[in-house]
Amino acid sequence: MKPLNALKIVEIQNASRVYLGTDADNRGVEVECRLHKIGRPRELDDYHLAGVYSKASVPFEIDEINYENAEPMGNKAYQAYTKQVSDAVHDGIISGKGVFVTGGTCLHAPGVAGGIRRAFGKDAKLGIIWLDAHGDINFPETSPSGMVGGMPFAVTLGYCMKEWSEACGLVPPFDDRLAILTDARSFDKEEAENLKNMNLTLMSTDEFLDEAKWQASVSKLAAEVDALYLHIDADIVDSKYVPDHNTPETNGPDIWPLLRNIRIVMETGMVPVATLASIYFDMEALGKERVIGPETAILTGIRMIGTILENWKNMPS
Length: 317
Fold this sequence. Notes:
The chain is an alpha/beta fold. It contains ten helices and twelve strands. The chain is globular and about 55 Å long.
């Protein structure tokens, strides 16, 4: 391990609602894509105001990702979008910085993973811990909605959409034997079928809440890899903590065990990159007013970010 001396903060400013066709004639074809920069006020501005990025007690720089600067790749806008993310993550790692990615949705995860793969090399053993109320392991062939945001974990593990992972530099993809998914309490039935053919470790909500089991699972994985990618979707917690989330789920963990478990991961000293997705509540893009409970959701975001950064003392060497 090496001490964390500097951070690169990657803020993803874009809304992302990307869909593929869901019938036999257009599966895999992008039929809708809305990626754009929305106006202020933004939750990311509230995080700046709170000074939460200073929690790591190291110098930091901020890099903004805006889709309007992306170049089309194979007529798939999300590939161009996530290639930008891959570049930002890769550049941060090779410059010796820890990289924290926030904003956007889980759609950017293959880009983050691609940046890690490019920086560590094709032979590196890379682990991933995916905290999400959903599995995100749909395939284009099985997705009931065609929503690309329900597929990024499957892409990161190499199960579908090879052209997307290749566009992000995610070659080879992460090994699912070095992956933990929790708590995934809301699965599509098609995802549940996909999971049967995967080798990842699935931890239920009860197992996630069991500190000893979580510690043992994280420690075991950390000992087997060269680096760990921590990915968090804010909907991992019960919906009362993120009432403005686009896909809130009830019956989830309270915020306090989540923060404890984040700390356990960060204290391994094996995390070069951590991401917090869907904490940038894009109600404006959905045509909704931000009146549900933005203060509660923003406080949750500040708590999650602060816990990641204040426990980020070391990185893999």
